[in-house]
Write a structure and sequence with these properties.
Length: 440
């Protein structure tokens, strides 16, 4: 089955820890601190893969994690940065935050890359903490943790022309005879349960991509049947070929079918209802088709007159023209696709979502608090990525390291926050694995 929406889990790499090291050299008794910095963690990078056309591969691999940065070394050696994790997606994939639905990136251009999660920064080595009064710092910074996120991928086909209409009106047959694509074709409703793509080469003239959009039903805009799944694939087409079974089989009125499909498009997305259309009256080789075509065109002309200025520019650009054809015998199909190619460049491009940031589409750096404080059974519990990093960085058994810890939590506002919450002398503070009594 065609998969056009799936969820995956991504995690950027942790930054490497800074090193605690002191210069050692023959005939030198006490060298200065020379601990190097940790390497940066790898990023999560999404890339457009021209060779992919579905999200089916994500059925077998759903977790992607970038490499952690290496720890710093002695002699001021910086750790190696972690390798980025490249997640390849088909052209036309929307990348969303699964929890909020926020669009993080719109993967459109072949080869395009977007950083979705940045890797953690490497921790600073102890060489950075030497001062005139602290000449032998016995501590270094731990690397920042990587970020984790559940991602929803949504594939919207990038096609210039979309074949739209009710089920079983001949869209798949038109695609097969005009592009060489080989969709499954049979005489029953919902034959096509996935969009099919084909390229119209147009006798050396402008070539373009045509999509056979799965058939719609009345109520599709309200989610009936597979309505929303199908309508989503039309959103980016520049031009619609509205295929109608002009034979009126099963007692259907071809013009009423035309109105119903346009109603579903409008209710789903008003922009879709304004998308330029070419009308393809198919199955003209069948009984009653000729009479029905005459009636349809009379009603259609009246419909065009009623819309007037609303579609005047589209008509000037070549839209809303009616073609009669028989896809089974290929009669009229060549003229249809040639005409579409000749007017396609006059049509507006389909909508493209633009992420809020040109390079990094998603980051938690500015959204997370440095710490949180809660009272649990009389104990003040402090948590958060920043404070966890600090606790892992210091050596509280070392006087200078302990002094550094006290200064930095005061500077960051933790002491003030505890006082605002009413902490008293001798109350207990817990920061992950460390507990200590509070003193004024």
């Amino acid at each position: 089955m065609f998969i056009d929406r799936t969820k995956i889990f991504v995690a950027s790499g942790k930054g490497g820890n800074g090193a605690v090291s002191f210069h050692r050299e023959k005939y030198v008794n006490a060298g200065g601190p020379d601990g190097g910095d940790g390497g940066k963690g790898g990023d999560i990078v999404f890339m457009v893969d021209e060779g992919a056309s579905t999200l089916a591969d994500f059925k077998y691999k759903r977790k992607f994690k970038a490499e952690a940065g290496a720890n710093g070394g002695k002699n001021k050696k910086t750790g190696k940065s972690g390798a980025d994790e490249i997640v390849k997606v088909p052209q036309g994939t929307l990348v969303k935050d699964a929890a909020t639905g926020r669009i993080l990136a719109d993967m459109v251009t072949p080869g395009e890359k977007k950083i979705i999660l940045k890797g953690g920064k490497g921790g600073q080595g102890n060489m950075h903490f030497a001062t005139s009064t602290r000449q032998i710092p016995n501590f270094a910074r731990a690397g920042e943790e990587g970020k984790e996120l559940e991602i929803q991928l949504e594939l919207k086909l990038l096609a210039d022309v979309g074949l739209a209409g009710f089920p079983n009106v001949g869209k798949s047959t038109i695609l097969s005879v005009t592009t060489g694509a080989k969709p499954e074709i049979a005489d029953y409703h919902f034959t096509t349960i996935k969009p099919n793509l084909g390229v119209v080469f147009n006798n050396g003239e402008r070539s373009y991509v045509m999509a056979d959009i799965p058939g719609l039903i009345e109520g599709a805009s309200e989610g009936q049947g597979l309505g929303h799944e199908f309508l989503r694939h039309i959103e980016r087409t520049r031009l619609l070929i509205h295929v109608i079974d002009i034979s009126g089989r099963e007692g259907r009125d071809p013009f009423e079918d035309f109105l119903l499909i346009n109603k579903e498009l409008e209710q789903y997305n008003k922009e879709l209802s304004a998308r330029p259309q070419i009308i393809a009256l198919n199955k003209t080789d069948m009984e009653n088709a000729a009479e029905n075509a005459v009636v349809f065109k009379e009603k259609f002309e009246k419909w065009l007159e009623d819309r007037g200025e609303e579609i005047a520019q589209e008509r000037e650009n070549g839209a809303w023209r009616v073609f009669e054809l028989s896809a089974v015998t290929a009669q009229g199909t060549r003229e249809l696709v040639a005409y579409c190619g000749s007017i396609l460049d006059k049509m507006p491009a389909g909508s493209i979502f633009v992420p809020e940031d040109d390079n990094v589409s998603y980051t938690l750096d500015d959204e997370e608090e440095p710490f949180t404080v809660r009272v649990e059974e009389g104990v003040y519990v402090v948590e958060g990525p920043w404070i966890k990093n600090i606790v892992e960085s210091v050596n509280l058994d070392d006087y200078e390291s302990s002094q550094y810890f006290q200064r930095i939590i005061k500077k960051k506002g933790l002491i003030r926050k505890l006082e605002e919450m009413g902490i008293q002398e001798n109350d207990t503070v817990r920061i992950y694995e460390i507990e200590f009594d509070y003193y004024v």
